[in-house]
Predict the 3D structure of the following.
Amino acid sequence: MNKSCWRQALAASTASSNKKFTQEYQKVEQHLQSLLIDLMHRLYEEQVFIPQVDPQSLGEVLWNNVDQMFTDFISDEEMSLDTLKKALNRQTAALMTLALKQD
């Protein structure tokens, strides 16, 4: 899908009177979020993070950032996919630096 299609899908997911579409869109978003949160829990169990890390909150923060950056990407015609990926990588690395154990 191109950016215009994604904008329409996002708008429809929040403003549509089609309850089924809204529910399905939210279901996909929730599934993707839970995959990321589950990954953070597994990494925590493998003691990759410092003990103070709350893997649930870390996963939620990471998901919120990815979701917002995707919204920024589809809203900005000039932003390339490469620019999005670099920004996500940079921001995720900054958060991970705070959470990862320093061996």
Q: What stands out?
A: Residues 19-45 form the longest helix (27 residues). The CA atoms of residues 62 and 92 lie 7 Å apart. The chain has a mean pLDDT of 93.
